Automatic annotation (TrEMBL):
Protein name: Microtubule-associated serine/threonine-protein kinase 2
InterPro entries given in the database record: MAST_pre-PK_dom, MAST_pre-PK_dom_sf
Limits of the Microtubule-associated serine/threonine-protein kinase pre-PK domain: 1-97
Keywords: Kinase, Transferase
Pfam families linked: DUF1908 (PF08926)
GO molecular function, one term: kinase activity
């Protein structure tokens, strides 16, 4: 069963209220760090990766970061959004595991996933 638009809008309003009341600096810090990451990841500032799989993963992480920043700036962050983000990262991690990348790359993705899980626990 789907949720009504009114229910979804109510959740967004409640989440934004919670963020602004409980974590006013946390949201600003998250947005600032995401903006810095995206600025430092601009195509003119990053050398292309020789490995096509790593390049794809890097691109996916940048796109997820961009989406998170956009959603936050538009006050559209919900608990459901973080669950979907976590699912996306888990799928990416699973895909990476299947391609037998180096353990360093695998650990890096696991670290990214843990950071998202930590952040979603605070919401």
């Amino acid at each position: 069963p789907g949720r009504s638009p009114l229910s979804f809008d109510h959740e967004i309003m409640m989440m934004n209220h919670v963020y602004k009341e409980r974590f006013p600096k946390a949201t600003a810090q998250m947005e600032e760090r995401l903006a810095e990451l995206l600025a430092s990841s601009a195509p003119d500032k990053v050398r292309p990766l020789a490995d096509g799989v790593l390049s794809f993963i890097y691109h996916q992480l940048i796109e997820l970061s961009r989406d998170c920043l956009d959603k936050s700036r538009e006050d559209l962050i919900t608990s459901r959004y973080f669950y979907e983000l976590q699912e996306s990262l888990e799928k990416l991690l699973q895909d990476v595991s299947l391609t037998n990348l180096s353990s360093l790359s695998h650990r890096t993705l696991q670290f990214c996933l843990m950071r998202v899980e930590e952040h979603s626990e605070h919401t």
